[in-house]
Amino acid sequence: MKPANAKNFIKKLIPGKKKDRWGLVLEGGAMRCIFTAGVLDAIQETGLDHFDYIIGVSAGTGCAMSYIADQKGRSYKIFLNYLSTNQFIDFRRFLKGNHIMDLGYAIREINEQLLPINFEKFQASKTKFYTVLTDAHTGEAFYVNPEMNELMDSLVATCNLPYLTRCPAEFRGKKYVDGGVATPIPLQKALELGANKLVVVSTRPHGFRKKKSNFLRKLMGSFFSEFDNLTELIENDYANYNRDKSFLENFQSDEVELTIVEPPADFPVERLTTKRETLLEGYAMGIIEGMKLSKKLLE
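and the corresponding structure tokens:
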């Protein structure tokens, strides 16, 4: 028997260990994603080549882009230097009939001009990138692996948070809003993509559950009245979030190893926090939790 054939024969008798497939899920949360920025900066060196795919929701998508493009510290700079200003969040614009959040500035101007994403490295990455959008007509989640020429459009759509913007965003000829409306933590989709090693970065502490808000229901009626399914979905926003959070925290499987990274109970950052000191504290908490994750990835 020839040596090569002998090796093949031995491999059949003693099969090698199946290669792990790694997935990373990043919850949204607008300014709360400063925590995610800290986590990803802490694992940049140890985790960059680990993940076969990343699913980003809303602002988590922006953090994912900086991570995949290997631009450590970029998301941190965006939150601290650009998103904490009135140019991004300004409630006075609402009184003038405009969006509270300026997504054109937050996404197109920052990513293409002020602090450009390294599109070359992003495109060269072997990590497959997904973002999730919510169909404004059906209320269903739509997962997209965007082409390079539609990357900014997909980011605008997934961050288009109802009541902070006045109308859905258009992508591939359809109307969409923030992906977190349909599925705040897309763990189920991550499982469907076949990972046996999953990391989920949440932006809410362990055990957090949302409460129903009548304010949102009243506000949505005047802006999104033509989108019946969407209005109903946003009315039940609290239930959708609690469903995903409970599924995450109670997940058990012999085939899938799940690691959950969450901010501590005293995490101070809220969705529209712009105070620099508070954002710095949230980022530091992300760094701490990211260092723990980095150690696990090394092991």
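(Above: one complete record from the training split.) The radius of gyration is 20 Å.
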